[in-house]
């Protein structure tokens, strides 16, 4: 009898809990308001969410039904929230003007409802004007179902969000209008005439003129690593002085979820003396990569596992224009709390090269360089450390051993990090460099290559005279990709990323969409395929179609390109089944990055540069995924159809 | 002390004057009527400009994104319908490249020549509009010591035609208070932009009543001594091709001024400066109401302030 009862109870409990697990509804209420905040010692009106500056952490489990009611209490300002990186029905994506979503009017409430179909580290932010800069951004974490770690290696005792952002004393509106007045309004480290004199002294008048004249003709600045300066960089909303601190106990494993929620900044992230193992990129699990540092583009996320042993570690995220740090501490709670942070010495800022401007005959022209890689004895192991040169190298077939035709390779070397896989076939290049006629004089422009070369072990002895000059006191570092990573330390490269689980769709792309990123710095105009969003036509893709997105950066700034609603597989040289999922890819200046996309989410999806003011200036477009019905001439209905995956989720907005 | 007082009151006066005249011209319908003519004239010659090296990614406005298709044919079917035609959507689109911005510069300079004769020059410039279509207003006021002021106000429609260049057209109204009935209106066409090697350039052609034809050119370039201390060599040239009016200048190169202006950017908005220039003026032509004058040349020393709004 009692046995029967216990059975019944068990079944009852089981049934109850299973339905509870299956249909967990997770609700949040978010109130957007304007409040006075004091971050930098100056009280300023900024946007808060539920009274917090840096909006609160939202937590979900995979499979949850998310219900998020957003109340707009701003005066005279529409608002919106976009769930960055989430797979959801178009109207829930929160981009005004897309999928019939029209923003949230003042004093109105919008109910976002969607099924949580993924796990990982994401974030959310406003997609209305510059509200993101003004404070409307926060972390969003989705744990695997029942919080079971995806792999044993991911099992961590502590779990912290590390949200990086940039705070400015001016509002986004002021910043944008200042940039429009003078695009170099915030450039406070431009080169002066004395830098030119120094260069003449160092390189001679002729070389200096050669170098400078092109920049002058193009009317561009070498120093334009970022458009906006005077930022205070925050970590979880705290300034370096306020020192965000994450506690741990000795022997514990800690998961750090890095989110770059800044408006305009890219960071080089490191924790001195602590190895980080990257386990997730853009919320999507990847095979573990142990690294010492990584560059995180605006809107990207990386999860790392660390095993701290010391009492204290300082987390340092340095903006790539070297204008400051976002700083926090990992602290062993069994030791006494140590003081405040120490501001690290900034690394040298890299100057852009012609190659960053896309002016060199870049890799694409290396096609046809043909067959004789095999005769390029020597380069093998070195190249392995030249990670990063994406698949483009695959087109380096050819490369006639003569190397004399490798002119144009010159400064490229500096950015040759990341060359890996294909280079493997370039066995043996080293001392042959000496025979790279035509390369020599070009080498003069390879200044600043120092440490880069050092990672090209085996190669360095070939060009000692070139590296010496640059490693001198003036510390000039060239090339956007040059993070000044100390020799021997490993910086994460895109090519290191491999999807943890095999990609389901490994089809070759049916077609290619070229997305050329351009800009006119002088007028602060940023474009996709030569057009601003207000004057362009959307990209149109068939539902289920497999396409390649080819991002070609014609400008001299890096653009973190973000696609809403779907993950792209980054063509980083990995096998198609291993390519990592990304929602945002950094397209370095003058470079081409390609991704593959299975268009399996119906709707209108924004595709844009995640540098806020680039997007405001026009660097944005719409990618429409629609069912192709030959009888229908109106794609509107088609677009509005929910994806079959979204059953049970209310498609309609509740105002 | 006395001089500063003088500068102050004169500055104040000129601000008021220029402000007034600017307002009057902002509503001038003549500006609007110029639109169509410039648009149509912007065809072939401008295509050349579009292709200059600075034109990164700036393509002809009629080209469409090129996507290569694996199985061409039915791709486009059913996708052609426009979903973007509602007004709200346009409103959102405008927030990504269609916004209206403005930039205004106000400059006030006190100069003395080699003989110690002073003059006050004021200038206000405003550009307002979208990236493509802007209204450009420029006003100058020059007042030599113990003379009445000379001033001119231009209102031009400014159309962006190439990455670094606007073509402009409009009218200029000018008057010399020292001469009665000297006020005149001229038509203006020209370009404003940034030439290679960072030369800020403004070049105009003028034409008006009494068979007046003239041209002007202004070129300047910044050299950074520090991030805040910036020296700016400049060149200003005025030419008169013909002028049958009563107060005509001699035709030919009527005025040339070249100098170096060095400013200190206290902030990006407040920029005091000093100015050393060499100026040449050809002089007046003999007409019914005036006698010919000799050409004059000499050094000018100035100091002033530039404000950016």
Topology:
The complex is a heterodimer of chains A (655) and B (309).
Chain A lengths: L1 H21 L2 E14 L4 E7 L8 E4 L3 E8 L9 E3 L24 E7 L4 E6 L11 E7 L14 E10 L4 H10 L11 H11 L1 H14 L13 E4 L8 E5 L5 E7 L6 E4 L5 E6 L2 E8 L1 E4 L4 E6 L5 E8 L5 E8 L17 E2 L28 H5 L35 H4 L16 H4 L6 H6 L8 H7 L6 E2 L32 E10 L4 E4 L10 E4 L3 E8 L5 E5 L4 E3 L10 E2 L1 E4 L4 E7 L4 E7 L2 H6 L2 E7 L8 H6 L15
Parallel strand pairs in A: 1-4, 3-8, 9-12, 11-19, 20-21, 22-25, 24-32
Antiparallel strand pairs in A: 1-2, 4-6, 5-7, 7-8, 9-10, 12-17, 13-16, 13-18, 14-15, 14-17, 18-19, 22-23, 25-30, 26-29, 26-31, 27-28, 27-30, 31-32
Helix pairs in contact in A: 3-4
Chain B lengths: L1 H25 L2 H12 L3 H7 L16 E2 L18 H8 L6 E13 L4 E12 L3 E12 L5 E13 L2 E12 L7 E12 L3 E10 L3 E9 L2 E2 L4 E14 L9 E13 L5 E12 L14 E13 L1
Antiparallel strand pairs in B: 2-3, 2-14, 3-4, 4-5, 5-6, 6-7, 7-8, 8-9, 9-11, 10-11, 11-12, 12-13, 13-14
InterPro entries (chain B): Autotransporte_beta_dom_sf (IPR036709), Cu-R_B_prcur (IPR007939)
GO molecular function (chain B): copper ion binding
Keywords (chain B): Signal
Oligomer: heterodimer
Biggest sheet details of chain A: 6 strands, mixed
Per DSSP E runs of 2 or more residues, the count of β-strands of chain A stands at 32
Q: How would the global form of chain A be characterised?
A: globular
Domain Plastocyanin-like (chain A): 32-146, 226-318, 509-627
Region (Disordered) (chain A): 633-655
Keywords (chain A): Copper, Metal-binding, Oxidoreductase, Signal
Protein name (chain A): Copper oxidase
